[in-house]
Design a protein that fits this description.
The chain is α+β, with helices and mostly antiparallel strands. The chain is 37% helix and 26% strand. The relative contact order is 0.18.
């Protein structure tokens, strides 16, 4: 493993974006926007190695681990070098968020066991299903939207820098209502959302807002993950407006991504309520991820 690991920064964006265009990912984590806005939590270090961009994560208080590499190269040699890196650091080897495509290439590493990571598996839906909400299985969601439409006068607008401050205020209010200060995950999510909004002119994503009475009450952002899939990184809505989340999702997909057949709505993190919610939208399939750890 090379020693020229450097902190992830905007300087890495052109190289990472170019590799992702050439070798589009399936898992939600592997986009420059997502990696960049979560960089403070993961403390990402990056390096070019074996034809790949290597991503080392070092969350505070946890052992380091490698994300799947970006690009196309010698996967087995990459793993061998990574194991040597762990040995040099005196820590137990660990690889996280590894897709099936890489697992299939690593049958020769008998010292590593593959562990399914259901909590981080991505939910993928047909975009058209979440826009039209046709059929009995979407009856409840459609009712939420119908009630919202009857009760509120609203408008959808693309998320531009002009709405950044309003979105930041909404995020701050949401965080206070949800007591983010008491949740390690919500605090880090808050930091990631602030990064995304404040760097809106520098990152390659689309966003949308819902305004009620001329005030931003919901916002979302996503980007193209691969030619057939958009990934939704962030959705936030004022919880005082029932039905706002479903209409935010529907409008964003209809206005910005209607020509993209699939939408990846990321993982549920093992949170029971979040899992129930994501299943209620009836995923077309899951994108499985795995951990590699010592036997």
């Amino acid at each position: 493993m090379p020693l020229n690991l450097t902190p992830l920064s905007l300087d890495h964006k052109p190289e990472i974006d170019a590799l992702l265009r050439q070798y589009p990912p399936m898992i939600s984590e592997i986009s420059f926007t997502n990696l960049f806005i979560w960089r403070y939590y993961y403390q990402f270090q990056v390096a070019s190695d074996r034809g790949f961009i290597t991503l080392l994560a070092q969350p505070l208080g946890a052992n380091p681990f490698f994300f799947p590499p970006i690009g196309k190269g010698d996967t087995q040699s990459w793993v061998f070098d990574s194991l040597n890196f762990f040995k040099s650091q005196g820590v137990s080897p660990c690889f996280e968020r590894i897709p099936q495509s890489i697992i299939s290439e690593l049958s020769g590493f008998s010292e590593l066991q593959v562990v399914a990571d259901r909590d981080n598996s991505d939910y993928v839906y047909r975009t058209d299903n979440l826009v039209r909400l046709s059929g009995n299985k979407y009856h409840t969601l459609k009712n939420h939207i119908n009630r919202f439409n009857k009760k509120y006068a609203w408008e959808y607008l693309p998320l531009t820098p002009n709405f950044m401050e309003e979105c930041l205020i909404l995020q701050d209010e949401w965080c206070r209502s949800k007591k983010c200060i008491d949740s390690h995950h919500l605090l880090n999510e808050d930091k990631a959302i602030n990064e995304a909004l404040k760097k809106i002119s520098l990152l390659s994503y689309k966003g949308g807002v819902i305004r009620i009475n001329q005030k931003v009450e919901a916002f979302t952002l996503g980007e193209l993950l691969n030619p057939e899939t958009v990934v939704i990184h962030i959705e936030k809505a004022n919880p005082e407006f029932p039905g706002l989340y479903p209409i935010l999702q529907q409008q964003f997909l209809e206005r910005e991504w209607s020509l993209i057949p699939f939408v990846n709505r990321e993982q549920d993190l093992g949170i029971e309520g979040l899992r129930k919610s994501k299943l209620s939208y009836h995923p077309e399939f899951m994108v499985d991820k795995f951990r590699l750890i010592p036997k």
